[in-house]
Amino acid sequence: MARDNPFAKLDIASISTDKSPVKPGYAMTGAAKTVVRSIEDLAENTKKLMEGEVIVDLDPQSLDASSISDRLSDDGEEYQELKQAIRESGQSTPILVRPSADGQRYTVIFGHRRMKVARELGIPVKAIVKKLDDIASAIAQGQENSARSNLSFIERAYFAQNLLATGMTKDVVRTSLAIDEAMLSKMLGVVEVIPAPVIKAVGAAKKIGRDKWLSLRKLVLTPALLRASMDRVANAGFLELSEEQRFDDLHEYLKRYKSKSDARKPKAAETGSEWVSRDSSLNFSMNAKSKKVAIEFSNTEAKPFSDWLSSRMDQLYDEYRQSKSDNNGD
């Protein structure tokens, strides 16, 4: 079955890195609305990018993957379905590549899975060759995946982090992923706190959205839980789970670990004492911990006595220090 043209999603010539298109549902307010383009706009613009371009057959062995990784796993059910479709009906949509500096090879901008399928099947890959610079290539790669909606939240966050690591600005990243500043902040908050080995072990987690990843982030902010997460994913049994199960397994494990840790925490020892003046006009109560003492005065003399006491604190403290010296025999 023919697939919609995924290239109908961006117009490289019209891309400006000071614009931050967002997916429908991600609210933007104020002046930001004037620079937002929706996914539907990207889909319309891509037609212009592909008009008049020639599709050529390339040897998949002459292609190099993009240096900016955007996937955490590639061999899931979707990939197998794609491979079966190409095996039976051929490649219906070309990939986008750009010439390498040596003029002998090409770098894939998007269509990595189709390239991989062609290699595995031993067939040429249909491609469009376009000269694009690093920024335009990054934007094209990210927007194609955003428009096709085949990257999970964590893969998009992983891609954003990798873009920044190559020196791209946050403006480029937002444009590439069609997100606003708030969403980018959440994405980076996840991938900068959760260790890379944990993210890679969990995998793409296609069904796990932003809120669950933020919940996991909150858990691993605790050092003990961070160590527990590393230990959990290093367990051979964890990697034997399907990708659909791994996130929930880790999340529930850390929640149980936290509950047990909280239950084991000893409560701080607390002592209390009370005193009443002979004329019953002043009540004193005290609750003391190792480094914190709470004192309360009550009854009719509470306020005047506290004022009197406050005015003599220096004198009383000096007497206290002197008594300690006397007791120590100094």
Low-confidence stretches: 1-40
DSSP helical segment count = 14
Portion of residues in helices? Answer: 40-55%
Largest sheet: 5 strands, mixed
CATH homology-level superfamily of one domain: Conserved hypothetical protein from pyrococcus furiosus pfu- 392566-001, ParB domain
Task: Report strand order across the widest sheet.
Answer: 1-5-3-4-2
**CATH architecture of one domain, please?**
Alpha-Beta Complex
Strand content: 5-15%
Class by SSE composition: alpha/beta
Shape: elongated
In the CATH scheme, what's the topology name of one domain? Conserved hypothetical protein from pyrococcus furiosus pfu- 392566-001, ParB domain
Number of strands: 8
Report on the structure:
With 330 residues, the chain is α/β, with parallel strands linked by helices. Among the domains are: 1-152, Conserved hypothetical protein from pyrococcus furiosus pfu- 392566-001, ParB domain (Alpha-Beta Complex), CATH 3.90.1530.10; 272-327, no CATH class. The chain has helices at residues 39-50, 77-89, 112-121, 134-148, 153-165, 170-177, 181-193, 196-202, 210-220, 223-234, 236-239, 243-264, 302-311, 313-327, and strands spanning 55-58, 63-64, 95-99, 106-110, 125-129, 271-276, 283-288, 293-298. The longest helix is centred in the last third of the chain and has 22 residues, at 243-264. The termini are far apart. Residues 1-40 have low confidence and may be disordered.
